[in-house]
Amino acid sequence: MVMNFRMLSDRDLIAQVYCCTTSTELEMDLIRRLEAALDRFQNQDEELKHYHSKLSEALAKTTQVLSSC
Fold it and tell me: What is the pLDDT of residues 15-63, one digit of tens each?
């Protein structure tokens, strides 16, 4: 069965490589590094969403105070 790897998500592609018993140590190391980079990117994305939420709350409060003046 031929797989279209372009259709896989990053995580699914990583899972496919982990399942492949013919991967070399270098390939496995590169995959581990890619997985770690994806985790860092996801964490940064979550931190940015949290920061954006806090800024939005502060802006809403500031707007409320200014409009009551």
Answer: 877 777 677 887 778 888 888 998 999 999 999 999 999 999 999 999 9
Q: Is residue 69 part of a domain?
A: no
Where in the sequence is the domain holding 22, given as residue range(s)?
A: 9-37
Question: What is the rounded distance in angstroms from the CA atom of residue 26 to the CA atom of residue 65?
Answer: 58
What DSSP state is assigned to residue 49? H
Reported as half-sphere exposure (CB side, CA atoms, 13 A), residue 22 has a value of: 0
- Whether residue 3 is predicted with pLDDT greater than 70 in this model: the reply is no
Asked whether residue 53 is domain-assigned, the answer is: no
